[in-house]
């Protein structure tokens, strides 16, 4: 591969310095639209992983960060403002490194800025409790930071899935060692540069390690001086991380995969519900969204009408380079991921009825990149592989139900429990079903809306712990009980 002279090389950020030798292992990051090299990055060595953890420990123990909420609030607020200021440039880089649509990338930057701003406010509200336990005994329950938090991030929303745990961990007074996916470290490194330029962040309080999960990620999870791992990624990797972290008994928070059901009842506003189903399937990010509503559950009597309507919307989507205006579906991240999705599509053709998509682009620009057309399967049995496993591509499975009870049964028929939606005009029905579905989040008459102030997270095998909101802050704290004997 020819490498341009001015090609950017991203490095690790440790104790306030950009480090990483040119002779070290390099990662090539290519644009999924056409396979062209976008930038290179230097992988961290084992010694650099140790140095990053030591820098984080030193920063959290020797600076006043943990005990100075005003400093943390000021730092996070500045970071939020500067991130917003970098919006379009960073969105372009996110689009180039992951093949995402520009508007989706821009929304991601803004979501990150919003999380930072929200947690800037909460940095000054990390309250514990105090009480008299008996006439002689005063208890102070002090909410303290956990210490050094390793944050491991996937590639599908590289920036918002970094800022989500990072803003909460920093607001609570922790130090952070962040590891982005080796497929998308560039936008993360540009974001870390903003931290470098803000004086309120003590050097070493945020560190960046670039490298693969099997080496750098694994070392971070095993590290005896990392107090907590915040992991976002695949359920299988999450289980591995949890088992590995058990050796050092560190705290682990897991945001994992999903197979979210989008349940449409016959009394729903069907125009909105159909749009919601297609939007929920996250074709805007080629289906690469953890909360994607990849199963649409429809009543038997409305089944063919709804499938026809969904097919029409899906076939109208413009597929192409996400940096071009009007494009509604971009490529998936890599050739490996593309092959994996086509394997699922082949399985789907045996298990269910293909409604639209499922073909390969044989010529033209779309054949140059990792594109998969919007694909819908109908009559998908509950036990089918494409109904059970997270495909992480633009593939939607339609399933039918008889009544409310049956809808909840089908909705709950996978190991996942990340998100769900119910479409109906009957609020009582909406609430009954919302309570029956085992899921960290349930939307009513909408899909996919996330808020920095509203908790999200997984039930069942979709995760452990909560992100965003107050609970998202408390994840990164531990309660210390200081007990005072009075009167003597
Ligand atoms: P992976 O689990 O493959 O990777 C996630 C991160 O973990 C990457 O940084 C990866 O590094 C790292 N990693 C891989 N192996 C290890 C290991 N043994 N020890 C430590 N770290 C490791 O997921 P993907 O990147 O493929 O992301 C897609 C998945 O993420 C989907 O399942 C999706 O549902 C889930 N996800 C969940 C979200 C949620 O909020 N619940 C949000 C978004 C995505 P590297 O890539 O460099 O090898």
Shape estimate? globular
**What count of helical segments does DSSP give?**
15
Mean pLDDT: 97
Distance between the termini: 77 Å
Description:
The chain is α/β, with parallel strands linked by helices and 488 residues long. The N and C termini lie far apart (77 Å). β9 (175-179), α6 (186-196) and β10 form a beta-alpha-beta unit. It is built from 15 helices and 23 strands. It has a seven-stranded mixed β-sheet with strand order 15-16-17-14-13-19-20, sandwiched between helices. The protein has two domains: 9-256 and 463-481, Aldehyde Dehydrogenase, Chain A, domain 1, CATH 3.40.605; 261-451, Aldehyde Dehydrogenase, Chain A, domain 2. The mean pLDDT is 97. Helices cover 37% and strands 21% of the residues. It is globular and about 75 Å long. It has helices at 46-62, 69-85, 87-98, 102-122, 160-171, 186-196, 213-222, 235-245, 270-280, 303-315, 335-351, 385-388, 404-411, 427-436, 469-474; strands at 9-10, 12-14, 17-19, 26-30, 37-42, 129-134, 137-145, 148-152, 175-179, 206-208, 228-232, 251-255, 261-264, 295-299, 353-356, 375-378, 395-401, 416-417, 420-423, 442-444, 459-460, 463-464, 477-485. NADPH dihydro-nicotinamide-adenine-dinucleotide phosphate is lined by residues 152-157, 161, 179, 181-183, 212-214, 217-218, 221, 232-234, 237, 240-241, 255-258, 290, 390, 392, 418, 458, 463.
Short description:
This protein is of the alpha/beta class and 488 residues long. The chain contains 15 helices and 23 strands.
């Amino acid at each position: 591969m020819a490498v341009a002279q001015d090609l950017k090389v991203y490095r690790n950020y440790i104790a306030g310095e950009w480090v990483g030798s040119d002779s070290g292992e390099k990662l090539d990051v290519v644009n999924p639209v056409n396979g062209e090299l976008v930038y290179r990055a230097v992988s961290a060595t084992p010694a650099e992983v140790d140095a990053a953890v030591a820098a984080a420990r030193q920063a959290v123990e020797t600076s006043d960060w943990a005990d100075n909420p005003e400093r943390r609030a000021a730092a996070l607020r500045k970071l939020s403002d500067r991130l917003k200021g970098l919006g379009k440039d960073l969105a372009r880089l996110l689009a180039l490194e992951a093949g995402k649509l520009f508007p989706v990338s821009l929304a991601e930057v803004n979501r990150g800025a919003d999380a930072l701003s929200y947690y800037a406010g909460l940095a000054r509200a990390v309250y514990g409790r105090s009480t008299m336990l008996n006439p002689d005994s005063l208890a102070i329950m002090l909410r303290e930071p956990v210490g050094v938090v390793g944050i491991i991030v996937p590639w599908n929303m590289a920036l918002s899935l970094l800022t989500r745990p990072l803003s909460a961990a920093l607001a609570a007074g922790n130090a952070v060692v962040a590891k982005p996916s080796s497929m998308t470290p560039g936008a993360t490194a540009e974001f870390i540069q903003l931290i470098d330029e803000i004086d309120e962040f003590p050097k070493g309080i945020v560190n960046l390690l670039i490298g693969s999960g099997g080496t750098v990620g694994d070392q971070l999870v095993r590290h005896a001086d990392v107090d907590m791992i915040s992991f976002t990624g695949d359920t299988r990797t999450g289980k591995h991380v949890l088992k590995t972290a058990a050796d050092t008994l560190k705290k682990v928070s897991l945001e994992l995969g999903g197979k979210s059901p989008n349940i449409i009842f016959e009394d729903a506003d069907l125009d909105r519900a159909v749009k919601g189903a297609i939007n929920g399937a996250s074709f805007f990010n080629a289906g690469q969204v953890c909360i994607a509503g990849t199963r649409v559950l429809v009543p038997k009597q409305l089944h063919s009408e709804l499938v026809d309507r969904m097919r029409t919307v899906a076939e109208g989507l413009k597929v192409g380079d996400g940096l071009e205006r009007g494009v509604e579906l971009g490529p998936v991240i890599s050739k490996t991921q593309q092959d994996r999705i086509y394997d699922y599509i082949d399985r789907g053709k045996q298990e269910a009825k293909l409604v639209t998509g499922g073909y390969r682009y044989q010529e033209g620009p779309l054949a140059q990149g990792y594109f998969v057309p919007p694909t819908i399967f109908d009559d998908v049995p509950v036990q089918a592989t494409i109904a059970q496993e997270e495909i992480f591509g633009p593939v939607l499975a339609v399933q039918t139900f008889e009544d409310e009870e049956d809808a909840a049964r089908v909705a709950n028929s996978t190991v996942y429990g990340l998100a769900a939606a119910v479409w109906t005009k009957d609020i009582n029905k909406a609430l009954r079903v919302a309570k029956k579905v085992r899921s960290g989040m349930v939307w009513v008459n909408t899909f996919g809306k996330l808020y920095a102030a509203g908790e999200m997270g997984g039930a069942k095998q979709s995760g452990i712990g909560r992100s965003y909101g107050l609970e998202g802050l408390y994840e990164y704290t531990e309660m210390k009980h200081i007990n005072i004997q009075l009167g003597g």
